[in-house]
Amino acid sequence: MVNALRKDISSLLANPLFEGLSDKQLEDVVEVLEEVHFKTGAIIAIEGEPVTELYFIKSGTAEVFKKEPDMDLEHHLSTLSPGDSIGEMAILDSKPRSASVRAVSDCSLLMLKNDKLQSLSASEESIGSKIKSNLSREMSERLRQSNEMTVHSLRVQLAEEKSRVAMGILICTLLVGICLYVFSLQVLQNLTHAAKVSTVVSVSIIFLFAAMSIFVIKKGGYPFSMYGLTLKNWRQSLIESILWLIPILALLCVLKWLYLTRYPGAQNYPLLSLGQHLKMGKGVLILTCLAYSVFAPVQEFIARGCFQSSFQNFLMGKHRILLSIVISNLMFSMTHLHISTRFALLAFAPGLFWGWQYARHKNLIGISISHVIIGLSASIFIGFPGILS
Question: Smaller CB count within 10 Å for the chain: N or C?
Answer without folding.
Answer: N
